[in-house]
Amino acid sequence: FAAPPHADAYRYLFDGPVRFEADAASLAFDARYLALPVRRDEKALQAMLQRALPLTVLQYRRDRLLVHRVAQMLAADPSAAHTAEAVAGKLNISVRTLHRQLKEEGVSLQQLKNEARRERAIRLLLQTRKPVKQVASAVGFDSEKSFARAFREWTGAAPSAFRAGAGAPTAGSGPGGSGDAAAGEGSARG
């Protein structure tokens, strides 16, 4: 199987190399350990608990950071089709878990997609001279009109006015600037 997102935790559990996507799953140890009696004293219990605590905290932090991991994924490959299935697959979680955990963190996949589109649109408008129509297409909109409507909701300004004013008003100052608007959902690709 593929390496899960928490693969780094395995080094705390196993004292040897860990391989993923192997032909078989196995655990190897020296045969002499089979002759030893099974014992668990207070010191061993304390050691086990000390090792278990970081793993528990790691799991909690991993869940809390899902929104950041998804946002990074969206920004890293803006041309990819970021369907729920594709995102969940890259994270080695189910679509249902993806939606549930994002909801627990107070955001939806569509909100993260809109935020990524907004950030990329702002960057393209300010750092390139691409026509607005090309910027619209680059951030996943089928029409310039739909993009302009969404951009106004995100920033409070039309794309051309935003570019001319070098970003004034600032991103996030207009309605929907926090990325929580559903602007463009029906007319944007992905």
Structure description:
The protein is an all-alpha fold and 190 residues long. It has a domain of 98 residues. 53% of the residues lie in helices and 0% in strands. It is elongated, with a radius of gyration of 24 Å. The chain starts with 9 loop residues before the first helix and ends in a 26-residue tail after the last helix.
Low-confidence stretches: 167-186
- Oligomer status: single chain
Q: Characterize the overall form.
A: elongated
Kindly state the percentage of residues in helix: 40-55%
In terms of DSSP E residues, the strand content is under 5%
Helix-strand blueprint:
Blueprint: H1 10-13, H2 42-64, H3 66-76, H4 84-91, H5 95-104, H6 109-127, H7 132-138, H8 144-155, H9 159-164
Fill in the keyword field for this structure.
190 residues; mainly alpha; 53% helix; elongated
Short description:
By secondary structure, this protein is an all-alpha fold. Helices cover 53% and strands 0% of the residues.
